[in-house]
Design brief:
The protein is built from 20 helices and 19 strands. By secondary structure, it is of the alpha/beta class. It starts with 12 loop residues before the first helix and ends with a helix. The structure holds zinc ion (ZN).
Length: 557
């Protein structure tokens, strides 16, 4: 019986017909979309009336079973799960009942009679991915098979490489990766994603190494780089289409001992809708920052190491303040997010357009608000200060560990303290910690002594531990790729300049003194912000301690 007959009443004829002609593996997903019903509900209905059993999870698949080629498994979307020697049967799980000659093929290849079970599409895909690595179907060399119509003719290697590279990028998007690294080793090519700031190895097919030159060439073609140049590093961009959106990817190559290493950065500009609220700033902090954002002039700085989310925050500020009455011009390197309604300029050092130079031109463009991606040198710093003193609101970032450090860094750059005092309005230091996966986080046992240690290390008020109910730690589940974390939260330290602090600055006091005074005046530190997030169960203590240790090391250096 055709399982589609079960849904006859809900399906228009032409739709049923088009479902019949589409590949068997895609039918369930399409049907679920059309009926706006979950795949498992549909599958249970099909299972009940076709004498197949439905399974919710795929346990113990036959991982090293070689009689069925990987290509056949991926094309027919099925996984062998058990062999019964006595009955001479093989159990397989798939997302649609078999049809055509599929069962005959399995018998021909295994000499076992197939027994089918049904499971949802994503679970089978995930299992195939776990068993054979990403892109395994694309790259497997197999001469199988014309007889079954679900199996396409063998493709040439070029097409397989293109499919493989596309699959790697798509999977990276799905896993929320920001970077993809192709790293040649002596005897293999490894692949890693950066997810929530951490590197995660990607399982790849065993034979990936033999395709290394072709994969590297494909990536270079996509970015219009010189394919034959393998000794010099190259940079480029790729526009990658996924469904209806175009993804901007920055690519760079670097010659290494065993071949070129290639890194991709997914800029995901069109998907980003970061707002100040979604950064994880709490209401108190927003109340402190917002009035400053509305001032007509002055400088607002965001500080932190690379990867601490500074440009995300700056862009969220731009979104917050943009209006038809304000002309906003930015100078960035690179432009990571497109923001509608503002004018974004990209630095280009090859033609000598650096931050300082671009900033000079921006000032002739009658801006109200200027965002300079980063202050790296004295020249940029002094132009930014001059701009703020001549009636512009200026946003920028600096590489310093904490908020007070930004003030002394500017002095070190040779800027007069009175200029700093009269222009800087607000300095926000920022870090990112990983957000515990809400689906699998677990309560963490702790003793009073543990807490005492943490409180000391973070220099937070011991009384805050009294409000403690539970701490949570990472576990790991399907939803979080077994990492225990999903996404990240910003930690913030907002130093609002006021008279007392300016006096310390004019007296050239140390960053430490300024910081301590600010804390006495009520500034929440990065450490206490991290502690609050751990108390809320949003992140784990180990995440907070990791960044606190880094801070301590940096302070000593
Ligand atoms: Zn999880």
């Amino acid at each position: 019986m055709d399982p589609l007959n079960l849904f006859q009443e809900d399906l228009p004829n032409d739709l049923a017909q088009s479902l019949r002609t589409m590949p068997r593996r895609e039918r369930l997903t399409k049907l679920a979309q059309e009926l706006e019903t979950a795949e498992d509900t549909i599958l249970q209905k099909i299972a009940a009336s076709t004498q197949h059993s439905y399974v919710d999870t795929i346990e113990d698949p036959l991982i090293h079973y070689n009689s069925l080629p990987i290509r056949l498994l991926t094309d027919a979307l099925m996984i062998p799960i058990q062999i019964n020697e006595k009955a001479q049967t093989i159990e397989l799980v798939s997302n649609w009942p078999p049809e055509g000659t599929l069962s005959d093929w399995i018998y021909a290849l295994t000499q076992l009679r197939p027994v089918w079970k049904l499971c949802t599409t994503q679970k089978i895909l995930d299992q195939i991915h776990d068993m054979y690595g990403i892109g395994s179907a694309s790259l497997e060399n197999t001469d199988l098979v014309e007889a079954d119509d679900t199996i396409q003719d063998e493709e040439d290697e070029d097409a397989a490489i293109i499919r493989f590279v596309n699959e790697v990028i798509r999977q990276a998007l799905k896993d929320r990766a920001t970077d993809i690294h192709f790293e040649p080793q002596r005897n293999n090519l490894t692949l890693r994603y950066r997810i929530d700031g951490h590197l995660v190895p990607v399982q790849v097919p065993e034979n990936l190494h033999q395709f290394q030159p072709a994969i590297m060439a494909r990536l270079k073609v996509m970015a219009r780089l010189n394919i034959s140049e393998r000794r010099r590093p190259q940079d480029g961009r790729i526009s990658f289409k996924v469904d209806d959106t175009t993804l901007d990817i920055r690519i760079s190559t670097l010659p290494t001992l065993f071949g070129e290493s290639i890194s991709l950065r997914l800029l995901q500009q069109q998907q980003q809708t970061n707002s100040v609220e979604s950064l994880g700033m709490d209401a108190d902090l927003i109340a402190k920052i917002e009035p400053v954002l509305q001032r007509p002039h002055g400088i607002i700085l965001v500080t932190g190491p690379t990867g601490s989310g500074k440009s995300t925050t700056l862009n969220a500020f731009m979104r917050k303040i943009r209006s038809p009455e304000r002309r906003i011009v930015t100078v960035e390197d690179p432009i990571e997010y497109e923001v509608t309604g503002i004018n974004q300029t990209q630095i280009n050092s090859e033609i000598g357009l650096n931050f300082a130079q671009a900033l000079r031109h921006v000032l002739r463009q009658d801006p109200d608000v200027i965002m300079v991606g980063e202050i790296r040198d004295t020249e940029t710093a002094s132009i930014a200060i001059r701009a703020s003193l001549t009636g512009h609101l200026v946003f920028s970032s600096l590489h310093t560990n904490d908020a007070a450090g930004a003030l002394t860094r500017l002095i070190d750059m040779g800027i007069e303290p009175f200029l700093i005092a009269s222009s800087i309005q607000l300095v926000i230091a920022q870090r990112l910690v990983r957000r515990l996966c809400p689906a699998c986080k677990q309560k963490q046992a702790h003793t009073a002594a543990d807490l005492q240690q943490v409180i000391q290390a973070l220099e937070v008020d011991p009384a805050t531990a009294n409000q403690l109910i539970e701490l949570y730690q990472a576990s790991g589940c399907e939803q979080c790729q077994q990492t225990g974390y999903q996404g990240r939260i910003g930690l913030f330290e907002a130093l609002k300049m006021q008279e007392d602090l300016n006096a310390l600055l004019l007296a050239r006091k140390s960053a430490y003194t300024i910081r301590q005074t600010a804390i006495e005046m009520g500034m929440q530190t990065l450490q206490s912000c991290g502690w609050q997030q751990a108390l809320k169960g949003a992140t784990s203590l180990s995440e907070v301690m990791r960044f606190a240790d880094d801070l301590k090391k940096a302070a000593k250096a």
